[in-house]
Amino acid sequence: MTFERPWLLLLSILPVVWCYYEWRKHSRHFALIAKAVMLLTIALALAGPVLSWHDHDVALAVVADTSASLSAKDLEREQSILKQVASNKGSNELDVIPFARAPREVASGESGYKLAVTAGEAGKGTNLEAPVRSALASLPTGMLHRILLISDGNENEGALTRAAWQARELGVPIDTIALAGRDRPQILVEAVGLPTVVFTGEQFPVDLTVYSPRAISATVDLAAEGKSIGNHSVALAAGESRLRILASLNATGAIDVSGSVQATGLGESRFEAALSVRRPRVVWVSQDVAGSEKHIAGLLAANKFDFTMVRQLPDSLDDAQIVVFNNINFEPMKVEDKQRIETFVQGGGGALWIAGENNMYVDHKGQPEDAIERTFPAKLAPPKEPEDTVVVLVMDKSASMEGKKIELSRVAATGVIENLKPEDQVGILIFDNSFQWTVPIRKADDKPALKRLIAGINPDGGTQIPAALTEAYRKILPLTATFKHMVLLTDGISEEGDSMKLAKDASEHKITISAIGLGQDVNRPFLEKLATIAGGKSYFLNDPTGLEQILLHDVKEHTGTVAIEKSIAVDIKHPSDLLDKVDVTKVPNLEGYVRFEQKPSADEILQVDGKDPLLVRWQYGLGRATVFASDAKSRWSADWVAWAGFDTLWTNIFRDLLPRGTESEANASFDSANQELVVDYHLSARSAAPETPPEIYAIGPGDFRKPVQLSRISTLDYRARVRIGEVQGLFRVRPLNESRIFPEVGLYRPEEELTEYGSNQALLKSVALATGGRFNPNPDQAFETGGQSIESTARLWPLLLGFAILLNLVELVMRKWRGIVETVRGPSAANAL
Predict the structure, then answer these.
(1) pTM
(2) Which distant-in-sequence residues (6+ apart) come within 8 Å of 330 by Cβ?
(3) CB 345 within 8 A of CB 375
């Protein structure tokens, strides 16, 4: 022990002398001694006593290499070293700093001696300087400082020598242990082939060309963004072998796909490439009740599809890969929308037609196929029954119909008869205050005679609708026909009577009723409700000029359904990949379907009723189109939804429709002369060049983000260029908004980290010698100091002052204890004392 101010020790005599002279005067000797000791303690504290000793405890920072270049064998050895060091820690301090491009915190799942390779871009570089500097800054005071660096010594960023110089100036020795590093392999991955674009959840091929000096079994490991996506055993022949490995990804964007080929005794060859992964989007156009698509929507979500349900075709399909028409009547669809679907499929998109009760057959009498008919591999078939259709026109001939209205009504009725087949049946019931049959229900085989009868209709009288409807319904009900349709045509207002009950009965017996109101003096709510209940449609015309077209369209629509509702068996027509992992031997019956005619070049996979197509597909341009002739909900496919093969079949169908070709080809390359990333876009002949090219950006490692200069070099070719300099890693080139013509593309520039082999023992040895450390020491010796120690001191004056204060309190209590007791117990207790 030493004193900072030893001359103040003379003050310690005063309390002793004072205690000696006061001893005889005081009866409370213990209190006197306590006060004297207190004063003596204060005198010692003022002298500044300092306690010194030699400390041998070590603060050790282990700097552990976890870069991507580390082999599995080196990582295992590193973990063994760390475990051995930790077992000898004792009272010493131990800090583990894993590093690659930069020092990092120990990750979840790691411990002080069990590490993992740094994932992603952060692991594709080795900076030995940064972690050593971090270790120097983290060492606690009051202990001996040491650093243990475990690495292969192959640095490609920073400079370890600078950090070593700083350590030497601070007197911190650096022990170094050299890992073996990766051996230069005898096998070599000569080429890697990946698709330009793949979709989430979809299997894609990784094609490898591998050279091996001899025939041997090998292992191919694949990873994406540093996470394993598969391990495959393969057989290599002597010389070149071409391998195809299948993988799938759930992430989206330009993805860094890496891998290695390993063979016992021949080492490990690594490879990296960039791959664009997109999440496919399905646009579901449906006329079904909302919620009926719930099962399919859930199935697609589970398979990493985006699902959007709409009532009509959206204005843009640029971000869609598949368009589904579910239970749609295509007749009202605009011509330009039909053409957009054809262009979409020809450009690489997928289209699926799921049938339903809304599908209507209309005979276009030799007209050329429209765009929808051209796109799909099957078209609606006409009904085959000899007595197909019964149409009854219930026509208002009241006085208000005189003139142009009745004239155009006669023309419209004639047009209906002209479009019926000879085996169809037709009836015309006219009414005013009463009703009568101008044309009793009969076959439409003598059209001239029917037209003469229609020409004799003349207006007269009032308007009584219920009785006329009842008469028409009574006559049409017992007839046998596939389609039964009534059309009410009126320009006036009438009592409603039991018309709504009649409409409900008609619907139950599959008789449809439509209503056409002429002029403004009609009971619009009545006509709309009547048609809705009976499964028909309502039309309202202020000008009767368009009456003929409306009436013809309505009759065609409601007498053209080709739905067949009965229990039917399903059979395989041709084996297909769409049936992969689907046990069709246990497929349940369907409760209905729609009759289609397959086109000659289409692939019919499933059929129903032993004759009609159920599942048909074909290639159309760059895309595919498929027809499923039943529904995908709980009406006709109620038993199918619960069938074990339902989900697998529909997953296969949707996967099959994903684009195999695109509207453009995009290839990325590196121009080493100008240090530029170059992307060449070649548009397909079907693609329309944009008036204004989109904004395109290049995004790379770190904070790299630059706009790309896009220029047109020919009619169908564009080129994008951006300077990236010496930056290495994965670059993504993509438009600001998604584009089918300018898709996202990636380029991977391999880092030096993945092309280095062996270890730089010379560097590690020189650092150890320069800082006074040891090269390749035994891990058990990590905390050994070679006899060095650090002098530690502790100032005792705070402790002495605290002790003096305590003694002062004790002496005070001894003098004042009677008063304290009186205060606590009160006056009566004090008197008792």
Answers:
(1) 0.59
(2) 338, 372
(3) yes
Task: Report pLDDT for 309.
Answer: 93
What's the chain's Rg over C-alpha atoms?
46
Specify whether the CB–CB gap between 603 and 576 falls below 8 A: yes
* Of residues 90, 37, 95, the one with CA closest to residue 61: 95
**516: which strand partners?**
489, 539
Tokens found for residue 655: 């996967």
- 425 DSSP β-pair partners: 390, 443
d(CA 215, CA 239): 8
- CA atoms in the 13 A half-sphere facing the CB of 263: 23
pLDDT of residue 108: 54
| The token pair that represents 307 in the structure block | 């699902």
DSSP-based three-state secondary structure for 330: coil
Would you state the pLDDT for residue 119?
76
At 107 the pLDDT is 62
**CA 832, CA 360: separation in Å to the nearest integer?**
115
Distance of alpha carbon 72 from alpha carbon 182, whole angstroms: 9
Beta bridge mates, 540: 517
Hey, is 197 helix, strand or coil? strand
Residue 195, H or E segment: none
pLDDT computed for residue 833 by the predictor: 45
Distance, CA of 204 to CA of 195 (rounded, Å): 7
CA gap 182, 425 in Å, rounded: 87
Q: Are 481 and 511 in contact (CB under 8 A)?
A: no
CB 512 within 8 Å of CB 482: no
Task: Say what angle helices 29-46 and 797-825 make with each other, to 10 degrees.
Answer: 150
Asked if 754 and 68 count as a contact pair (C-beta separation under 8 A), the reply is yes
Query: Cβ(74)–Cβ(758) under 8 Å?
Result: no
- For strands 603-608 and 2-3, give the pairing: unpaired
Averaged pLDDT in 10-residue chunks for the chain of 833 residues: 80 82 75 81 83 77 90 90 90 91 76 76 87 93 90 91 93 94 85 78 86 94 87 93 90 85 88 84 91 91 92 88 93 91 91 89 78 94 69 90 85 85 89 90 89 87 88 92 88 83 92 89 89 90 82 76 82 91 88 92 92 94 94 90 92 91 73 88 73 85 87 88 85 79 77 78 94 93 77 77 82 70 60 48
Mark out the alpha helices in 120-244 (DSSP H runs).
129-138, 160-170
SS3 for 541?
Answer: strand
- Please tell me the predicted confidence (pLDDT) of residue 386: 47
Best CA proximity match to 519, nearest among 487, 492, 548: 492
For residue 341, the Cα-to-chain-centroid distance in whole angstroms is 26
Q: What distance in Å separates the CA atoms of residue 528 and residue 398, rounded to the nearest whole number?
A: 21
Overall residue count recorded for the chain in this entry = 833
Q: Please tell me the distance from the alpha carbon of residue 199 to that of residue 660, in angstroms, as a whole number.
A: 10
Strands 322-326 and 350-354: parallel
Residue 591 is classified by DSSP as S
- Return the residue matching tokens 């005013």: 432
Name every residue whose Cβ is closer than 8 Å to that of residue 640 and which is 6 or more positions away in sequence. Answer: 587, 588, 590, 630, 632, 646
C-alpha to C-alpha distance for 828 and 833, rounded to whole angstroms: 9
Q: Which of 251, 287, 257, 288 is nearest to 271 (CA)?
A: 257
Beta strands in 555-658 (DSSP E): 563-564, 570-572, 593-594, 596-598, 603-608, 612-620, 623-628
d(CA 140, CA 172) in angstroms, rounded, equals 12
Packing angle, helices 447-455 and 404-419, rounded to 10: 170
What is the C-alpha separation between 556 and 536, in angstroms, rounded?
12
Find out whether 771 and 196 touch, Cβ atoms under 8 Å. no
Contact 698, 705 (CB under 8 A): yes
Instruction: Quickly count helices (H) and strands (E) in the chain.
Output: 19, 41
Predicted pLDDT at 423:
82
DSSP 4: S
User: Phi, psi (5° rounding) for residue 602?
Assistant: -80, 160
